[in-house]
Amino acid sequence: LVAGWMSVRAGWVVRGFVAATSYAKPVNARVIRFSTDNNAQNEKKEVDFYKVLGLPKSADPQRIKQAYLKKAALWHPDRNSHTPDLAKRKFEEVSEAMAVLSDEETRRMYDNGLYKRGTHVKKQPPRAGY
User: Fold this and answer.
1) The pLDDT value given to residue 117
2) Cβ-Cβ contacts under 8 Å for 24 (sequence gap 6 or more)
3) Mapping DSSP to helix (H, G, I), strand (E, B) and coil, where does residue 15 land?
4) What global pTM score does this model have?
5) Which end of the chain is more exposed for a tag (fewer CB within 10 A), N or C?
């Protein structure tokens, strides 16, 4: 018997199921409705990239990379097929945090409050040849 099992399907979270057979039987089930389309709310909300990666503001580049690899593995959409929307959103946050905090110039702008979310473009090195 599995107590406290959680199921996410079509935007519904159902808690309190006991999976004893091939189907789940409700036992004091609580159903919570959540929205999977929070893009407008997420863009308005400021995200603390240090908090996303679980780092202090004094973290060095090596520690930022380690934290990124750990969080990226945790929130990768392929590993979270049961909650693809949440995993995609969290993975994008982690990726943006790494992109901002790994670049010294962008990190300085972010620390001074001059960085606007979604404006970071990684600089491409010049191509050799034609």
Assistant:
1) 78
2) 5, 7, 17, 18
3) strand
4) 0.59
5) C
